[in-house]
Description:
By secondary structure, the chain is of the alpha+beta class. The protein has three domains: 126 residues, no CATH class; 82 residues; 247 residues, Neuraminidase. The protein is 32% helix and 24% strand. It contains seven helices and 29 strands. A four-stranded antiparallel sheet has the order 7-8-9-10, with no helix packed on it. Strands 11-12-15-16 form a four-stranded antiparallel sheet, with no helix packed on it. It has a four-stranded antiparallel sheet with strand order 17-18-21-22, with no helix packed on it. Helix 5 packs antiparallel against helix 6. It is globular and about 100 Å long. This is Kelch motif protein. Keywords: Kelch repeat, Repeat. It comes from Tetrahymena thermophila (strain SB210).
Amino acid sequence: MPVCTGTNTCKQQGRQIRWICLHPICSNFKELCDECHKNHLQFHQKYKVENEPEPNNTIVTFDDQKNTVEKILLRVREDLKFFKDRASSEIQNMENTELPINNIVKELQEIRRMINQEFDHFIEQLVDDYEKPIKDKIKDVYNEIQTKITETDDFISKLNSVDQLETIKLTSIIDIPYQTSFQKARLEQLFDERTTKKFEGVIDDDVVLRFLGSFQQELKNLIYIPSEKNELKKKLMVQKKQRAPLNSKKNWLFYFEPNTKNFYYVDTSKTNPQITKIVLDNISFNIYYGNRSILASDDNIYLIGGYDQKNINSENEEQYKSVYLLDLDQKTLKKVSSLLTLRHSFGLCCFQNYLYIIGGYNYQEGSLAKCEKISLQKVNQHNAIPISNLLQKTSHASVCSWQDKIIVKFGGIQFDSNSTDQRNQSKTPRILAESLFEFYFPDLDQWIQMPQLNQCVSQSFLSTIIEVNDQIYIFGGLDENLQLLKKCTKIQQYNLMKLDIEVINQPDLANKSYSICQPIFRELDNQAFKVFYLSYETNDYKNQRVQPVLRSLIV
């Protein structure tokens, strides 16, 4: 009898199941084909907890597990045959005995109970063998945290005492020469290692001096009087601001204008920022309708997707799958990769050195559930990788990453896909009211819907979405009647991986708008944040020649 139920093919690859993972962090006995088995081993190696069982010991072959269960069943069949023969004999001799049939039934019921008990024990033992090391490790970590909390509380209580503060001050003064000499000795040892050994990394004289000077300064800070501390803090803040590259692209809002060669950007670090146009003279084509662009973590701007709706066909669609890198010095776009699926009006975000392309629309399939990702580390190798589909086909959605752990898809629309040619989008789109939120977990390659959030926000598409200070802000967009919105919502997280989150309404925007451009934010001196975005303030969302307006929002 096979261990798994249903079909014996895996859900990801559709291939024959050969392996079963019994690891405790997998929510169930995970069934794997040979290809999934390789990926799953890498997953466990990447997220391995100290002292947890090796994944090679927790992933067993389907056949081995099947043989184990069949051995138990064989023993059960032998017991059943014995009692079946006995029952037949008793029934045949019933005329000559006073033994009632009820006793035989009771014995058979007891056999059934023992069979169930044996299987329960087998499964429980299987799970316990692999959960115990993890539970013990979690308990050790918990005890260690409790110890640290107690030590911290003791230290805080000492800081409330003037005498203790004086002791700390004197100890710091006495300790400076010792710590300095110790660090010098350690650095001399590192110099010696550098000359006698080969190792990764370079320690030059500047690094050493900065390290030593920083260490001495930190010790001296412990004994500065309050006024000197405040002065030092102000100097550090000034230095931090001076180090920030105000002319960096990270201060830019930008977009590519369809059916032209124009690139527009605005530098929000300037006192009076203005939108600047640059004509990309060295490209041989006009920018496509429905494109999306992004400033990625490698500090490059990428232009992705879109196509010429009037001239697209199966023979030329490959050219519209191109992924381009913007080269402003040469005023050109360099092709660096290609999409797997033709699409426009998709969601786009950067997450863990990948560009994620979510949903969208094309003329053959209508609204799309297909998603893919492109590695920024191998961006020149045409290395688009498919990931799990959205649970609902979606175009014109808003997408962002959250705490570098998950991807959030909000809103979007769905066009009728009954027609064989999807160039005509004149029908009113349907907003995905039942699937406004979908969360993507990269480690599991899985999307989940969040229906509990649907009633807390406005049903919309082309809203602006951004993560600020570990919280998600969603504002603006278009409703099902193509009316502009100005509602603003914050999603507060308390424990993101446990999905312990709350939706909190914020003050409305001053101007109704939607947006298709990547927003940015900057921290202000009063610990507030200022979000900058390019606002489209007309409901003609298909006309991408409309010029946006620079807007900002304090959150």
